[in-house]
Amino acid sequence: MKNLILPPASFRTLYAFGNKQAIDLSLSENPLGCSLEVIRVMKEITQIDCFDYPDPDSNLIRVDLAQRFKLSLKNFFISNGSESLIQLLPRVLMSKGEEAIVPVLTFPMFEKSVALAGGIVIQSPMTSDFSIDLIDIKEKISKETKIIFLCNPNNPTGKLLAKKDILQLVKNTKAFVIVDEANIEFGGESVISEVANFDNLIVLRTFSKGFGLAGLRVGFCVANPQGVNLLQMIAQPFAVNKFAQKAVIAALNDQVFMNKTRKFMVKERCFLTRELKKMSFEVVDSEANNLLVKVTPLFLSSNDFVEKLADLNVSVVNGTAFPVLGNDFVRVSPRTRKINKKFIEVISNILNI
Ligand SMILES: Cc1ncc(COP(=O)(O)O)c(C=O)c1O
Fold first, then answer.
1. What pLDDT does 2 receive?
2. How close is the Cα of 89 to the center of ligand 1, in Å?
3. Does domain 15-33+256-350 have CATH number 3.40.50.300?
4. Does the model's pTM come out above 0.85?
5. Minimum CA distance residue for ligand 1 atom 14
6. What would the 3-class secondary structure string for 222-260 be?
7. Which residues line ligand 1 (CB under 6 A)?
8. Domain 36-253 is of which CATH architecture?
9. Fewer beta carbons under 10 A from the terminal one: N or C of the chain?
10. What is the mean pLDDT of residues 265-293?
């Protein structure tokens, strides 16, 4: 155990597990569940799906995605969740001592993965409205910059980056720009089709959020074919099991479910924002599935707010999970109207409104 390199903090602390209560607004997955087509396909599973190894390249999914995005199959790498890609990419793309620029308020795993790969994290502060600051990022690019992480829509703010602004950055740097589009089904415009035009653009997607398949663990990376090749060489060989491969195809084909999801999220996000603002909370304007809510001065701190909610069987993500936020914010993810209403009721009871 002498030479064990410990991560800066456990990856387990980056997710909201362990704190879930009956009224759970900590989950940012699809409140509508998943497509019923997925369940239908799962019911048709036979013995061969269990005893035979899965296709190591998940080619059924690659062919489907290549057609959908009008790219080559060689542009797609399918993985066991996109989290595994976030861990792999810095190891593949950068050497010890090289730099990665990471917005200071985003999915914390980007920083951890860079640190684990021996890279140096260059933090970019947010703009005054909590958006990713592309001007600041451009100014921070140096000869040592190997990776720039962007998250669109951003977690935990739900803020969007415009496609043209992302591409402007990609055009003006030699660094790899990794755009994590984990929550794109809830808002924003994808840059996937641009991978054909820019060798330094890498896009990450997951089936965990909009598609509601977090339990099956499937994500994918869109990159130039050499990048995909590198990932294939070092990734575990049978990362995506057979059930998950079949389920993903069914989910991709159910466009009705996805349209319903997008409309549903807009309605519930607006409902929660309006109701929280009525109670004098500051809510950062979001265009996706996460709402950043300032809880002070109505409560002593985010810890105080989270504890009071937990006593009443409600969970949200404490903003302390995102170090730059201090002890003032929580992240709330809209659920069904019934749960959202209960959440608002519980808070108004605490506040005696
Ligand atoms: C922005 C972002 N990227 C990636 C992930 C990882 O998703 P998964 O590993 O389930 O594909 C998450 C999960 O919360 C996320 O919020």
1. 45
2. 14
3. no
4. yes
5. 15
6. ECCHHHHHHHHHHCCCCCCCHHHHHHHHHHHHCHHHHHH
7. 81-83, 107, 151, 155, 180, 182, 206, 208, 214, 219
8. 3-Layer(aba) Sandwich (3.40)
9. N
10. 97
